[in-house]
Amino acid sequence: MMLAPWVQKNRLEAGCDEAGRGCLAGPVTAASVILSPGFAESLVQEGVLDDSKKLSRTVRDRLRRVIESQATAWAVVHVDPAEIDRINILQASLAGMRRAARKLKVRPEFLLIDGNRFVTSDDLPEFECFIKGDARFASIAAASILAKTHRDELMQNLHAECPHYGWNSNAGYPTRAHREGIREVGLSIHHRRSFRQLPK
Predict the structure, then answer these.
(1) For labelling alongside 167, which of 4, 68, 151, 160 has CA 20 to 30 A away?
(2) Do 52 and 145 form a contact (C-beta atoms < 8 A)?
(3) What string of DSSP letters covers 25-87?
């Protein structure tokens, strides 16, 4: 199914999405992106933009450069494991999307939120939630790509610090190699203590 370039044309719409909710380690990363109508339409017509999970790493990285250089505005925010443990992963994900929207250098008129819930605040514009929005709207797909690529880059850097868990390939998700690393050397400062790290 082809992505829609906007909900309402000629309105400053910011797509919001996150990456890393299901990981055992590292932050949850949120992004917000405003695409001009022309840029959004060209990305849709080219057929290259999609939910980040459906794209190869090479394509995601290329699209990240295109989005960051041509978007009207974009912002990325990391919410660290300590905060995730304190307020829970859902609230951390929502907080990340709010912060990313606030960080935009151009104030949006409307937010497109990936998922089925959002908690807003007085300093943010109106919003609408879209289930599987990253596969439906260009701005949310763009946000999903930025969230995913920025988080993967961070986990690559953390892998150099903590090489036992295979974060360079699993990005902190609960793979066999990651859990074997936890069994062998225990938890790092980057692990989420509120998550079940090993199966019972």
Answers:
(1) 68
(2) yes
(3) BS-EEEEEEE--HHHHHHHHHHT----GGGS-HHHHHHHHHHHHHHSSEEEEEEE-HHHHHHH
Residue 134 confidence (pLDDT) above 80: yes
Confirm if 20 and 151 have CB atoms less than 8 A apart. Answer: yes
- Taken as a whole, the chain contains a residue count of 200
Cα separation of 82 and 132, whole Å? 28
Q: Does domain 13-151 have CATH number 3.30.420.10?
A: yes
pLDDT tens-digit profile of 109-120?
Answer: 999 999 999 999
Q: Token pair for residue 81?
A: 């494991």
Q: Do 6 and 137 meet the contact criterion of CB atoms below 8 Å apart?
A: yes
Residue 171 CA to residue 157 CA, distance in Å, equals 10
pLDDT for res 51: 82
DSSP-derived letter for residue 7 is S
